[in-house]
Predict the 3D structure of the following.
Amino acid sequence: MSSMADGWREVFEGKRLVPPPSPTVRSAVERRLTPSHGFQLSLVRIAAAPLPQEMPEGERGVSYQLRVSLLDRNHQQFFGKTWKSQPQRMKNKKISFSEVVYFHTSLRLSSTVVVLELVSLSPRPDGFQHALGRGFTLLELFTDRPEAQAAVGNRRLNLHHGSPRCLLHSLLKDTVDYSSLLVTIDGAGLECVIRNHPALASMMHLLPENVLVSGDESIPGLAASPTGDALVRPRLLKMMPFTLKGLTISLQPSLEKFESHLLQLVNADCRNTKQLEPEDALRSVVIQERRVHVGVHNGWCFLDKPQVVVLQPLALGARGRAGSSSKQSTLVKDSSATSSLPQKLGLRSSLELNLTDHRGFAVIFQLEFIFSAPIGREMALSATSTSRGSFMQCVRWAIWFPFQEPAVWEQEEVQLFLQGGAKPNPQGVMVYSNQPSAKSQSSGPLLASDTVQVSEAKDTIAFRLERKASSTKMSLRTEKEDLTSQRRSLLSLSRGQKQVPADSPPGSPKGPGLSLSQLATTSRYPTISHSSSALPWKQPFPSVRHASTLASAHQLSHVACPGVSSIAHLEEDLQEERDVSPSAQDGDQLQEPPFTPVHAPLINLGTSVSSSYSVSSRSTLAYLYSAGFPDITDCSGQVADVLDPTEALPFDLHREETDLLQGNLLIFQFLAFTRIPTPGAGPDWPDNIYFTFQFYRFPPVTSQQLKLLTCDKAKQKPGDQFPCILASINQDGIANADSPGLQVQFRVDEAFLKPGEKSRFLRYLALHAMHIDIWDSDSLHLIGSTAIELKYMLRQGKLAVQSFHEVEVLTTNFVGEDTLPMSTDVGQSSAFRPMMVHTVDRGRLHVRTGSIGCPVDPSGRRTKDITLSNPHIITPRTVGFRGGSLSCRKVLQLNASNTARAYRQKTDSGIRADTVVAHQEQSLNDSDGRRHKLACMAAIHQQEGKEEAEAAKVTGRIKEARLAEEHHINSMEDDNKAQGISNMLRQAITTEHLIYAGLGSAEYMEFVLRNPFNVPQTVTIHSEDPELSVITNTEEWAYFKELTKTLTPLEEDMFHLAEGTPGLRIYLWPKESVNIPMKYQSLLCDHTMAPQGPSFLPRGKGSQMAKKNLSNIVAAKTIKVTFKSEDDKPMAICQINVEPTPHVVNQTFRLYHPELCFLKKAIHLPPWHDPAGRTDPDARTHISVRCSDPDVICQTRMQVPGEPQDVYLKVPGSPSPKIKMFYVMVFSDKWMAAPSQIWQIYVHFLERVDISCVIGQCSCQSLVLRGKQAIRRVKCFSSDPLELKVDPEGVFVLPPSAVQELQLKVQPWRAGSHFFFVNAVDLERRRLVSAWLLCLNVHRPVLSKAFEVCVPVDGGHGNSKKITYTNPYKSSRTFVLRSDHPDLLQFRKDQFQIGGGESHTIGLRFASSQSPGSVEILVFVNNLEEKTEETFCVKVHYSVV
């Protein structure tokens, strides 16, 4: 074992490389030259006559050697490793080498050259050789052309006098042509041949970049060649899959003591190397996470990127995998074995490693700790609101050679010693060491008999390595066990365990690849992510990576740019495990697993990148600046200063606050959008777009419909992706090309900001990024999202600034694996199927931001801006009674007399009218004159008598009415007088106070209550609104006092709440004054939102302006707090006038879910620090959440200290296509003074349709669209028109209350679970009529035949093959040919017709590839109805001829 370790270490130390300059690497990345290319350099001979300083002819034994190195002449730095040829003798003034050198590099730049030096070797008396340089030459590999092709072919290079070290002289700096400065040796030249060597692509993972090697050098993993040159046509050794299980790490003397001692040293080192603020000195560094890197190394490099997994503290005797046991699981046997404290670190999952049976292969383990440390005040703006940062440090590492002779690890546990200290290691990092015995530790395995003796003094790692079955057909038991492990992994997430999914995305190492510290890594975008191998996100509260004194140079160069942060967003399975063991209890309640929703987050990145901005070509920039966009100018008409968003921006808060131009006009100009070809969409997609975003606490903005105008250059050069200019659309539907772009501006001055808000607004600009959603205005589908950093809108004393941003528009796709159903798993839900998330780049958005300083009119300053000395203390006014009349007698008497007069007039007129009518009717019926006269006289007398009697009755009633009126007036006068006096007295004891309240923010105030009586009083406090409460907890009171800097007395046990009393009670001595602490906090707000779709501006508005919607703020109200004495009379009244203030949204989530179903979601939060700065490791940070919608269940669960927490949401469903919007407030302090984060969550409820189909075959599904109240012109849009088509395709009329049947035709080309969207849009109003969520479960077809074909790499013309197909039917049929890779395979005829039983030859044309590899292509023979008749599988091998 020692000889093998020495051999590997000799290869490792002998192949250490000098890295290339960092600017050169960045330049190659910017020019998209990152794929490495292989080259072959053949060294033929050197014409050596005459060589300078020739040896005397009598001195023999002189040989010559050729040394080859790589040089970056722009930075004058050699890199890689110098290759040396075999010594050769000179014959006939010529030196023949005939050697071939291979290397691969991605630095295909003109600055990369090959330096070849001729050295003479002469023997010395001491046995060594004396090397003397005889000349050198330069070989230029690449040109300055954009394609950066190598200058291949036969070359003859002249030798120059001197040594290659002269190339490092300062005179040669920035020199392109060395011919004028170097002296050529006459007659001496090197003949060589440089060629491209694509065959190296298959073995680049075995050889580092920029390494010069010969074909006879030993490279583990590469098969030997009988010709002696294994690199001409490299053949790789077969890799075998292995599973690493039960990994545990034991640190001595114990895990607790090891970490305690390590923290003491780190804290002391931080105090010695960093100047901390007084408040930071009270804090300490804590361990945030423990993880291990596992990788396979062949002495040259790692074969794949090491896998990173998170370790869990385990109790003594516990193993890494649940349910496993081992006889050697206990390394230390003492009294602490029964302790529940963690004694070791373990991995709860398994790892998959690919190894080959070669003695040069080694498995490298690296134990790494993630520390969380306080950040000083000088880093306050680059850090987040938590004022803490994270750094990584390697503490131990180990190496293991699995293929030693004999292999003793089969079916046994392997134990290794962990190393530490300043020793070279494959990771190239500094390793912690504080034990004197670390020098004596070796990397050999432990014997089972020596475990107890050595484990007490050495740190060890233990694991088991098992060989996986080579057969592709897995047994039913194995498949069931894997499915069970996947379910347990999902269930462990719901129980708060840090489990990593067993399946990694394509292109990443297999096995767990997600670390919780990676979730906290700062990203440039505000994204949310799912459980993929490298998906960090951003929010201001996660820990941010910062450089530390313990970080290595590699770590320092990879510190993410601070400013914004991330949130890990994980799908949560909230049900119990279905397949319980037989030993489980029979009373477990089964719950239906929830649907796995489609989550389209705002930004979903793969990894943290150094820059989120793309750099356009000069022609693209020239085209944009010539489009005629309006300039951003200052108040004097001068163009604003331009800031580069790719450079760091210094920020001085004091300079911004003392700026003479206190007003700011902030401008956002949306200039253009660059399309990126999207599978399933046409080249002109999208055609029309619109934006939605919200800046600071301004109302949300929804832009109008914008047209994408394509330039002529883009049509002439299809390969170039020129941006499309954005233009608004007029009322007639024609794009306004004369006024390009969209401009939105916001004015922020003293009239807008409330007192003390200026610094908060400036920090918002410095630390936040504005999230923007980009929508397709035709289909109303979300194209993607992006974010723009706002720190480049800080003027820093300048009159005006502007910056140009080109940002990526990203979205996420969810793909599930194709798991074939098994008979034993009937009824199992598909929710256990693992889902992988892919980030898709949808385009580039070109935005210009600007900030213009504006003067502020002093006369226009509001009175409320004049702040008081202490705005949190409410002191009652000491004013007396102002006097005035309290009687309303005259008014009441006037109203009573008017009422009586109207009553009398009504009564009199009614009596007289009846009398006259009766008299007239009687006189008309009398025909005799005399009788008529007598009757009239009698009637008159009779009437007079009746009138007198009636008058007497009326007079009596009037008198009674007058008496009643007078009595009512007197009683009303008395009541109003008492009420008036009461109102005057209440007004005299009422004190008004104005507060500006935002969502979730607590407004603290103290009311000075004074007892005006000479006797003690027990005062009862009553509040009209529950949102205004009295603070009764002393700790909470002290917290708010410190927060608001209120210097007033603090008293304990001041209030008393008795049973049956309406409120709190406080005892006051005579003439005593006390401060009553109160707070107002509103957690509810208005959820009104604009309908989905672009806005329509009123006529007369500018075409470059966007519409601002109503803001969702808390309601304005007036609240009275009454202080009543013992006789239930008010002693004092405090009236709080609440003026609502919009809140700032830090993160936006968009979730898609089936209608009328509960949405269950879990948002994964990284570890939080303690805002109080306590150093107690047992202290827990109080994280609490609240929701603005009372119907939404929102809660969080407290985990162990230092572990992450989950925010759980349960949202009730709504009918399709309703969108539910609400806010989630995250508080990091115990008393919830102000939310650290406010999330805006949109839930799109869609009608769910499940479709099961097969690849390549068309499946149909019917949908029903119901009409509304009005007639509509509707068109249906699919999110993937290539695989999903809707019939009818065009516009149709939907009558009111009508039913329209829609036919879906699905023809998928990818296996697994996929999600598509279908929107029915009202074209006139641009509103969503209905929406569907299609859940596709796509299975692989049954193969009829399988073929293999070899296609040469870089062949240019590809390869053609034929397949014979026989019609199985007796009649003539027409067939259609399809392929799942149309870019790699084309048919000679896509459709053919053959008779019954006849055969037809199918012509296949395979496209060539640029790199070797293999791919499986499916060929489908479908009928005219797109039903698959036969399926062929063609495995294409791309290899070097």
